[in-house]
Amino acid sequence: MTATTTLRVIESHARRYRHTWRSSVFTSFVNPVLMLTAMGLGLGTLVDEGGGLDQLSYLAFLGPGLLAATAMQTAAGESSYPVMAGIKWIKSYDAALSTPVGTGDLLAGHVGWALLRIAQVTIAFALVEILFGAVTVGGGLASVLPAVVTGFAFTTPITWFTASLENETGLASLFRFGIVPLFLFSGTFFPISQLPDWMEPLAVLTPLWHGVEWARNWALGVPSSWPWWGHAFFLMAVALGCGVGASRTFRKRLIS
After folding, report:
1. Residue 54 has pLDDT above 90, yes or no
2. b/e sequence 62-87, b meaning 16+ C-beta within 10 Å
3. Which of the chain's ends, N or C, has fewer CB atoms near its CB within 10 Å?
4. How many Å apart are CA 135 and CA 28, to the nearest integer?
5. Which of 165, 156, 162, 153 has the alpha carbon at shortest distance from 83?
6. Domain range spanning residue 23?
């Protein structure tokens, strides 16, 4: 694996993206507008009338959580069906391996491109948050880094999972039983202290909870039960550990 061949893989992703970037950029702004309008301003009015959450408006509480959750969803989108397509459907990975590109380059290039996409989406989300008045300019921009690291912590395990599948059936289960429950129960919409006692430790073990807490801490200055570097260490450990597993699975799956 070399930096040059890895960059070539990222370039190939970027060249394909040229054909879809307009709709992608459009939805990157429209989705947060709809979510913050419906949940932050609509539902948030009722929550605020009931006393709010942690002395914050619900819009402010919700924004950084949705930012981290959006990073998770983007990572899942980039690391599921596109990876299956490269391995099984269009076999673009096999074509790449006939060049100096190796399996390590394919994985590193895929992860690098996914992080670029996550950064793009989360920056757009942060700008919408700022326009809605959910966070300050400094807080909104500061929360982008925690969101990107959160996306990294989902990119490698989902890539690893996808590379181990023989068909796409498992991907539907991933979203139904993995991504959706995490989105709902990892502190995005309400503090995990409102969960049943037995569920709280489970929520703390999820990467999304760490991303939400870290993003909320940097965006709003609210205290977290973990220091920010603890969240960062947990997320990076998940990302790098699963990256090793994904590398081995890529090699096993693509080199026979």
Report:
1. no
2. bbbbbbbbbbbbbbbbbbbebbbebb
3. C
4. 18
5. 162
6. 3-254
Residues 129-157: tens digit of each pLDDT? 999 999 999 999 999 999 999 999 999 99
Burial (Cβ within 10 Å: 0-12, 13-18, ≥19) of residue 195: middle
User: Does the structure show a pLDDT above 70 at 52?
Assistant: no
* pLDDT above 70 as % of the chain: 97
How is residue 198 written in tokens?
Answer: 């037995």
- The CA distances from residue 80 to 11, 26, 94, in Å, are 20, 22, 17
pLDDT tens string 84-93: 999 989 888 9
* Surface-to-core class of residue 244, CB atoms within 10 Å of its CB (0-12 exposed, 13-18 middle, 19+ buried): exposed
